[in-house]
Structure formats: structure tokens, C-alpha cells
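Task: sequence design from structure.
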């Protein structure tokens, strides 16, 4: 384990842990060795990660100065996602106990929902003390449950980081939203206006109603006018929600790249270049048709070939 400071207890060096190469891929497809970039990423598909780990308990016990019969470890897998150097959230997805009698190597695997992915996938393996020992051969032997004895981090960049992909799902509203007032709507935008700092791809989801077969087919086929009409409506909804709340508008300038707020700011700059927030608010109040038309015009997807 590489650290920038001295821990107050004994830890496991890298040579004490044998870790297989990470494998990654779409669920249901053959996995491939994890490289720096996950090609052909699709937010509509879940991602599977897999590896295995082996620790010689006898050697580890000597390194930690704990009798091997008393050494109880746990291997923890955490996964996060986000843009930049660090994930916004790391979630524990697996904890496997390990002692002298456990079968090895330990297989570690997890499914990551595609709808939660954004920018990069971060993987972290921790080996921690799972139980205190009754006997310690050194005052530096770890004794506190949860003490991190070894750790390794990995990350893989999603193809284009999701920057050029809008999170769309084509689903049957009759099946997914039974009894809801919008069950017959052609599409439905799911998001929370207060979460401007959240990753756009992870916080926003556009559902297209497959019960409208013609519409769903045009969306799947990438019909430009259909997609521009839908995107224009999304822009009107999201920009309008920010303009309705005074405090949200003030937060836009502090939002990081890839966030909901940054995306809304980009849309406003495209539709209303050089205009202040108050000017755009005034346009919406006095000329709502002009306001809507400007945003729909900014939804130009260009040449999609």
C-alpha cells in the first residue's frame, strides 16, 4: 500500500497481495482487460467489473505480527463515478471475509447500472482488519476493526465521458408509470431542479414513451427533427426552472464542468448570447414565445451523419 505518511500500525506491502487484472465490459458480453478507456460505452447498458485477489494469510500474519489463527481480514470493493480526479460518491458494493481457512483466490464482481455512470468509473479495493486479535506480538500490530491494511485504486474513462450523450431511455409508460397522469405523454423529463451541482448524465433522465410507436422508432433511428424537438422542450423546462428560482440562478457560476448547472449555463449562452440572467428572465416574462423559440433554435444538433 502506497501512502504519503506513516500509519501508526503495521500494514501489508504490495507484494503480500496478488491481484488479478481487472476485467470490464457490458453485461451479457465477454469481458475484456480494463484499459484507460472503456470503448463503446452506452449509458443504457449496465457495466460489469470483475477481478480476483489472493493473500497468503501465513505471510500476512507475520507481517502484521498477529497469530495466523487469529487474523481476520475483510476485502472491500467500492465503486464510484464522476468527472475529474475524484468520484463524487464511493459506494461499498462487496465485503468478503478472509481468514486462514477461507478458499482463495477470492472472486470480486459487481454490476454498475449504466444510468449512474458519468465521466469515469473508479474502483477501490481495501483490505481491512475484520476482528481484533487476542494476541499481538508487536505494539504496532493493528487492533482496531476497520483499520485499512492495504488499498489500491483504479479508474477507467468512459468513451467521451458522456459529454456528447443525452441520457435517454425508451420505455413503455403503461408498464413503467402505470396510473400516473403523464402515462400518455410522448416523453417525460426526470430531474430535480435543486441539484445543479450533480453530474448531468447521472442526475437527468429523459424517458421516451414506446407506447407511441412512431415516435419511439424515430428516436431510436436518430431522426434529427424529432430529437431537436424533444431537446428543445428539455431546454425550455430546465432553463425555465432555474429562472423561476432566484437562488438557483445565482448558483450557476459555481457549477463544475459536466454538472447540471454547467449544462444549463451552456444552453443559455447558446440561446441568449451576451444576455444577463435578469435579461433572460425579462424576455421570458414579456415575450414567452420568443423565449421558447430561441431555446428550440439552440437545440440544433447539426450534421448527425
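Answer:
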Amino acid at each position: 500500500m502506497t501512502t504519503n505518511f506513516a500509519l501508526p500500525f503495521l500494514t501489508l506491502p504490495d507484494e503480500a497481495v496478488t491481484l488479478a487484472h481487472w476485467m470490464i465490459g457490458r453485461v451479457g458480453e465477454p469481458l475484456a482487460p480494463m484499459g484507460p478507456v472503456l470503448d463503446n460505452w452506452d449509458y443504457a447498458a449496465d457495466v460489469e467489473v470483475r477481478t480476483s485477489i489472493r493473500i497468503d494469510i501465513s505471510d500476512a500474519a507475520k507481517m502484521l505480527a498477529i497469530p495466523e489463527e487469529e487474523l481476520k481480514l475483510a476485502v472491500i470493493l467500492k465503486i464510484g463515478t464522476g468527472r475529474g480526479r475524484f468520484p463524487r460518491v464511493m459506494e461499498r458494493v462487496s465485503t468478503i471475509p478472509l481468514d486462514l481457512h477461507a478458499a482463495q483466490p477470492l472472486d470480486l464482481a459487481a454490476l454498475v447500472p449504466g444510468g449512474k455512470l458519468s465521466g469515469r468509473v473508479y474502483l477501490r479495493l481495501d483490505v481491512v482488519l475484520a476482528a481484533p486479535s487476542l494476541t499481538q506480538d508487536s505494539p504496532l500490530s493493528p487492533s482496531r476493526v476497520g483499520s485499512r491494511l492495504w488499498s489500491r485504486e483504479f479508474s477507467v474513462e468512459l468513451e467521451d465521458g458522456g459529454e456528447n450523450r443525452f441520457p435517454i431511455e425508451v420505455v413503455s409508460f403503461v408498464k413503467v408509470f402505470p396510473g400516473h397522469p403523464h402515462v400518455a405523454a410522448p416523453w417525460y423529463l426526470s430531474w430535480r431542479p435543486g441539484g445543479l451541482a450533480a453530474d448531468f448524465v447521472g442526475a437527468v433522465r429523459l424517458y421516451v414513451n414506446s407506447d407511441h410507436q412512431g415516435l419511439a422508432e424515430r428516436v431510436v433511428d436518430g431522426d434529427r427533427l424529432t430529437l431537436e424537438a424533444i431537446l428543445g422542450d428539455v431546454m425550455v423546462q430546465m432553463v425555465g426552472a432555474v429562472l423561476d428560482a432566484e437562488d438557483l440562478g445565482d448558483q450557476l457560476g459555481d457549477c463544475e464542468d459536466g454538472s447540471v448547472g454547467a449544462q444549463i449555463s451552456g444552453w443559455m449562452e447558446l440561446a441568449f448570447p451576451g444576455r444577463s440572467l435578469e435579461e433572460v428572465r425579462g424576455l421570458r416574462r414579456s415575450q414567452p414565445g420568443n423565449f421558447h423559440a430561441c431555446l428550440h433554435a439552440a437545440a440544433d444538433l447539426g450534421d448527425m451523419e
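The two ends are 48 Å apart (CA to CA).
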